[in-house]
Amino acid sequence: MKRKRAENEIHDEVEEVEEEEAAPTIITTAKGMNSIVWQTPATNPPHRDDYIFLNGRRHVKPYYFRFICHVKNRWAGKTIVDLFTDEFKGRNYDYYERAVKCGRIQVDGKNVSIHYRVKTSETISHFVHRHEPPVMACDVSVLHEEEDVLTVCKPASVPVHACGQYQKNTVVGILEAEHGLAPLFPIHRLDRLVSGLLILARSSSKANTFRQQIEAGLVKKLYIAKVKGEFPEGEQVVDVNIYHDAREQISNVEVGDDATNVKPKGKASSTKFKRIDTNGEHSIVYCEPITGRTHQIRVHLQYAGHPIANDMLYLGESVGRRSAEEASADRVAARSKDSISSKTSENNEQPEEESFVDFTNDPMCTHCPNLAPTGYGGLEEGLWLHCIRYSGPDWSYECPYPDWAKLD
How far apart, in whole angstroms, are the C-alpha atoms of residue 69 and residue 75? Predict the structure, then answer.
């Protein structure tokens, strides 16, 4: 089974590829190293012992992993080293040359020369020592458990399922490792930095039932947010198109101009808001998204003049490239270093405790000896945006309010 990368989750700095669930492969690596068992999600499910807790963060012990992708038409004719250097910029030319020579990069399961030119019918594998970014060290608390449905309170900073750089440091991974709950089928998404109610089906048939109701518009969602300023009283509705820039991982409102006769790129979007408390400096607001666009609540609150109070991506009056680059929460992967040698100064900034953690260092790994991947910017703060309720035709699930929802 191949898993597609989820939209608007951060990308893996090594490769943007599909992950293959197949039998592990054993290969001989660089001189002086033993044979390594390369793992996939099917052969290496999350386990409680995989996690290390340091300085308020949940880390995953690094592990060997195989990424796989198929040669695209525009790649055909490139040498294998040039292909990786041009397309997957998380590592430099020297690393990729060494990886091909020692068999960490293969074509159709076979070692090739550094001068080998790829063809469109081929499959490329990259064997890596995988370091996942840490997340906040919060429990994934089970709220309600039924025969075919599980509801949990998702902590901020933890992605829902495997995507980008994350495989085990996910809600689904943690529930399997710490509660023995598997398989699980999330029926909706919450952005990585958003907390709150998450509904997971315990069978694919139940998941399909939920998704059919969502697609038919029969499901209502309710969030709570802490925003800047004194939000107006009464129900406020923001009806404005949203355009999502996938490259910059940011959304923008798009106000139509009939005079220009230019076709809008954005999608119709609508959110209802209602203030429930304010102290003048901040307000607590109910948020009911009628549509489901990327970052919809966040960008609609920014458009209304009351952005989420700790949302660095949308706190400015205008949303642009600079704000996206400054927000470590949304742009961690973009700051990964290109060279192996450049990681030395980055490593020195990591907490001292990390150097005492027992895990196997890989001499070819561009992240070792640290737990966190090179370029990780530090402990992230979760957004003050929390899902509190999902309800359908004959069901309703709720999540407790977060601590920040109480104003002084």
Answer: 12
